[in-house]
Amino acid sequence: MKKNYNYTRRKLYLPEYGRHIHEMIDSLLLIEDRHERNRQARAVIAVMGNLFPLLRDTADFTHKLWDHLFIMSDFQLDVDSPYPRPSREDLTIQPRRLQYSQSPIAYKHYGKHVQRMVKALAEEDPSRIGESIDCLARYMRTKSFEYNQEHPNNEVIVKDIRRMSDGAIELDESALQNIRSDYKQNQSAHPSRGQGARNVRPMGKMRPGQHSRNHPKNNFQHRNPSK
Question: Is the pTM value of this prediction over 0.70?
Answer without folding.
Answer: no
